């Protein structure tokens, strides 16, 4: 019985020992197989090495192109006959151009149809033109649709107490539609003519490619009583007369004389500054005065028209004074024809002088008698 009990005791222990031995062998076998698999795996690829890209060195010919093109001057030239019609068919050899007294060699004559046009239309909304405003608006709208091609753009400004950018550069249809939404003033209103022309010149210079033709077309009498320079001249006029008491006719006359002199000086300075800005932008200035010949009856109106005429002459444009309001369409047609027929003279300036001083140029057509030639009087060199 004792032997039987011992047999009964050892039987479970033998089973447990056998199971433990079986588990140990299984685990050892699986670890051995896993180790073999791991040893068979290929080694990991090396980490990529990133090398910085060297800055490419420009080729010599690229540097030459930049240096040479900086001297390229493009001059839009209009040639008209005695009837004001464009003279077509002129060749490169027909033109002569002189810069600061030195003849220049013309590189080529560009085709105006291949050079995009960027026009800024500035329309006066002050009370001085409100009676004719609707007709002016319609004529300007037809002009935009007539002259602009798909590659061209128009920008719209309203000449008001401050410059109002009504429409940034866009297509003819969008600009024309926007123009028709502008309303004229219904009561007395100040006019910042100088500031608006200056801002339009700045806008074209900053937002249009330099290779394009830049044009400013103004529909206004040119009178200004609210630009910064005009207000400055009014302050100067007051200070010039504040020592006078006005108690005598002689004193009152001195007040009038000193005041007018200060105002005239302020307007001359303002007009000179506007001219510089338009010339710096390489823009051509056109003006249309809807007041007609009646402007001659007023000293202020005469001064304003003479200022617009001087600006147009300096930049190669024209200052129109239609005798009747229904002639506006004909004036716009003349401007459109002129822009389409412009000769774009291109030359490399041989002027090696340094500095940013204004450089005078003169264009002539010796082969054509009794013609009128309009081109800008010069340019401000770009900084190199």
What does this structure look like?
This protein is α/β, with parallel strands linked by helices and 384 residues long. The protein has a domain at 116-338: Rossmann fold. It contains nine helices and 14 strands. It has helices at 2-40, 60-69, 133-147, 172-179, 193-207, 228-241, 249-280, 299-315, 328-340; strands at residues 72-80, 96-99, 102-103, 106-110, 117-124, 153-159, 163-170, 213-219, 283-288, 319-320, 343-348, 359-364, 372-374, 378-379. The strands form three sheets. A six-stranded mixed β-sheet has the order 7-6-5-8-9-10, sandwiched between helices. It is globular and about 70 Å long.
In CATH terms, what is the fold-level topology of the domain at 116-338? Rossmann fold
Give the strand order of the largest sheet, numbering strands 1, 2, ... along the chain: 7-6-5-8-9-10
Q: Which class do the helix and strand fractions yield? A: alpha/beta
By CATH reckoning, the class of the domain at 116-338 would read Alpha Beta
What is the oligomeric state here?
Answer: single chain
- What is Rg? 40 Å
- Largest beta-sheet details: 6 strands, mixed
Termini Cα gap: 121 Å
**E-strand count:** 14
The global form is globular
Which residues sit in consecutive blocks of at least 5 with pLDDT less than 50?
1-42, 47-51, 55-69
Q: What is the assigned CATH homologous superfamily of the domain at 116-338?
A: von Willebrand factor, type A domain
Enumerate how many helices there are, as a single number: 9
**What value does the average pLDDT take?**
83
Strand content is: 15-25%
CATH architecture of the domain at 116-338: 3-Layer(aba) Sandwich
Percentage of residues assigned to helices: 40-55%
Order of helices and strands: HHEEEEEHEEHHEHHEHEHEEEE
